[in-house]
Each structure stands twice: as C-alpha cells, then as structure tokens.
C-alpha cells in the first residue's frame, strides 16, 4: 500500500531540512585574542589585519566555510586573556588563535585545551607546548620560541662573534630565547642580562655592556621595548663598536620605521622575508600592502599562513569541528595550504619544520633601510623540545 505524507508532516520535514541547512551554514566562530593596545599593540594589529585579509579574500570564508572572527584585546595581561577565553568557551567557541606573547598563551592554553577546543598559534611558541606538555589540539604555525634564538646563535658563529652579551625580558619567551641562543653559540657569554617585559629605559644595561666590551649583543625585545632599546643603543655610541644580532621580532618593519636609522647594521634571524621567491609570498606582500598601505611584517606573514592553514582544515570537515574533531586535527597536521614560506610542514610535536634566514639591515638604492637576505642559516630546522613530546 502506498503511503502518503500529510500536509502537516511535509511541513515539519521541510522545517527540519531548513533548520539543518541553517545549522550547516552557520559561520564557524574563531576566537582571536591578541595584544591590540599597549606599545606592543601594533604587533596584534598586523596579525589581525593579515588574518582578516585571508578572510576577506575568501569572501568572509576560510576554505569555503563561513567564519565569524571574534577579535578581543588582551592588553598584554594574562588575566584579561583568560577571562576573555573563559567567556568564549562558555559561549561555544572551540577554535582559537591570535595570542602574541607566551605569558598570555600560558593563561589561555589550559582554558581552550581542557574544553576540547583547538588552539592554532600564529606567534607565541612556549617551550612546554613543544615538549612535555604538547597536546593533540595545539598547533604552532610560527615557531617554537627557541628557534629564532638558536638560529641567531648560528648567525653569531658565522659572523665571527667571539664574546657576546645576551639580553632578554624575564618571561617565558625571553627565557626560551636565551636558552636557545646558548644552545648553538660556540663563543664566550660575557654576561646574561634579564630585563622587564615592558621596560623603557635601558641606560643601566647599556652601561654594563660598555664596561664588558663584547664583540656582539644578542637581544630579544619585541615591540615598544625593542624600539626604545634600539634608539638608546644608537645614541650611546655603541652601535659603531658592537654587532647587534637579533631575531626579526626585535627589529620588524614597523620597528625599523619607528627607529629611523638606528637599526642600520643589525643582523637578524628570520623565518620569512618579503623578497622570498615564491608565488604565495609575492601575492601576500602585494595584497597586504594594497589593503593596508604598509609593508607586512613577519608577524603578518605568520598570521596569513595561520588563516590559510585553518581554512584548509575547515574545508576538509565542511566546518564541522565538533562532530569531526579527529578529521579536523588530521587536516591541520597535513598542512595542505600554500605558505608564504614556500614549503611548510609540521614536526611530530605539531610545530614547524622550516628554513631560517640571515638578514642584514642596510641602505637600499634610494637610501632607505631595507632587509637584505644574505643566506639560509638553518634548513629544515626544528626545535629541540620535540624529542620530549609524547603524542
């Protein structure tokens, strides 16, 4: 006997189908918690702008999946960031990125990961998440903190620096940076100086360095602190006597513009430079510059890669992170996206295996300071903490 569907039943079925379609089309929430204020706020601005550039290029989507990027300012305060993350998790957000500073990451990571969420880091790379505290739902697209420092140690060796003063803020990333530099540097450490995270006056430290008379300084001071240190270093007269070796994060494009000529002569370790010869990097530099009327920093490049990695994984699961968490994780691990770095893959601890470059700041043809890419200093480089990761 042939069954018929009554008008009421048909209406219910249509309503359910419509509800299912709406649920499927609902944008995926992404919690973007970053430092958008304080003297380091320009870093978060660059990261946010590059991430949103990828979203705009996708017409409000990443990997063809509609996204709702919920941007919040942590003001470089771990307690603020944790409060924001707690609220987002309570509201059902399960995918996060945006944090720049490792002390802030330490406050937010447990909130996200203990709720079964995913954290995809566009910058902060504390050593614990690369090693013993590695987590299947934590991915670092940028680096592990030691990497920009141990490659700077390699650079110091190549530059013939026999005696070096090392200096960094006394927080997670600063301590990781000093540990990384010491791991690869083969010369003498004249002194190990720890500063405050948002320090503005470095006169005492520079006086100490003058008395020690080293061949070079290795320092890691991102944002406003690095700008002040660079200006004071130049004004002290030490710039003509001592080589300055830093990660790109201590003399990025915005810092270079803010310090005038004070950054001239700096040597930098970097995972990316705007002159890399690959199609995705060229597209990114052109698109970012057109959209924001300024050159992109390495921070921006990392954030753009992060957005496109997330897009590749969202595409693989049609945006269903909660229902297909294992597939989403596997898609992130595959890293099947075009990277501004040309080649990109994850190591066993879900941190990058990538090339690092030695850059030099010098005058270009028009007299303006530019980054000159001198050479690859570490090819297919990974971090030492991966051996301690048991996943």
Automatic annotation (TrEMBL):
Transmembrane segments: none annotated. InterPro entries: BCAA_transport, Leu-bd, Peripla_BP_I. It holds the Pfam family Peripla_BP_6. Residues 1-23 form the signal peptide. Keywords: Signal. Gene3D superfamilies: 3.40.50.2300. Residues 27-363 form the Leucine-binding protein domain. Belongs to the leucine-binding protein family. This is ABC transporter substrate-binding protein. The lineage of its organism: Bacteria, Pseudomonadati, Pseudomonadota, Betaproteobacteria, Burkholderiales.
């Amino acid at each position: 006997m042939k069954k018929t569907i009554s008008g009421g039943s048909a209406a219910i079925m249509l309503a359910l189908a419509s509800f299912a379609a709406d649920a499927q089309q609902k944008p995926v929430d992404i919690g973007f918690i970053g430092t958008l204020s304080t003297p380091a706020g320009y870093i978060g601005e660059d990261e946010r702008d590059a991430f949103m550039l990828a979203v705009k290029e996708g017409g409000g989507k990443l990997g063809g999946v509609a996204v709702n990027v919920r941007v919040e300012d942590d003001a470089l305060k771990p307690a603020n960031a944790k409060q924001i993350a707690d609220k987002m998790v309570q509201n059902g957000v399960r995918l996060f990125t945006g944090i720049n500073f490792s002390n802030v990451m330490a406050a937010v990571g447990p909130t996200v990961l203990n709720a079964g969420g995913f954290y995809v880091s566009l910058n902060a790379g504390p050593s614990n998440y690369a090693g013993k505290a590695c987590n299947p739902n934590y991915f670092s697209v940028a680096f592990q903190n030691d990497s920009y420092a141990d490659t700077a140690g390699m650079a110091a060796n190549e530059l013939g620096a026999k005696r070096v003063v090392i200096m960094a803020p006394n927080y997670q990333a600063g301590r990781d940076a000093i540990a990384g530099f010491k791991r690869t540097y083969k010369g003498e450490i004249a002194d190990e100086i720890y500063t405050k995270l948002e320090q503005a006056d470095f006169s005492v430290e520079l006086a100490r360095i003058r008395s020690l008379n080293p061949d070079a300084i290795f320092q890691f001071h991102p944002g406003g602190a690095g700008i002040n240190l660079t200006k004071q270093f130049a004004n002290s007269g030490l710039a003509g006597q001592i080589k300055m070796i830093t990660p790109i994060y201590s003399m990025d494009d915005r810092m270079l513009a803010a310090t005038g000529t004070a950054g001239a002569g700096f040597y930098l370790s970097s995972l990316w430079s705007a002159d890399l010869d690959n199609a995705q990097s060229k597209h990114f530099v052109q698109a970012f510059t057109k959209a924001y009327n300024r050159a992109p920093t390495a921070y921006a490049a990392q954030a753009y890669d992060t957005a496109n990695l997330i897009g590749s994984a969202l595409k693989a699961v049609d945006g269903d992170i909660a229902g297909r968490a294992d597939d989403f994780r596997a898609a992130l691990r595959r890293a099947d996206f075009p990277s501004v770095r040309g080649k990109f893959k994850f190591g066993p601890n879900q941190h990058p295996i990538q090339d690092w470059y030695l850059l030099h700041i010098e005058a270009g043809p028009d007299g303006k300071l530019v980054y000159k890419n001198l050479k690859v200093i570490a090819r297919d480089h990974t971090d030492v903490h991966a051996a301690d990761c048991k996943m």
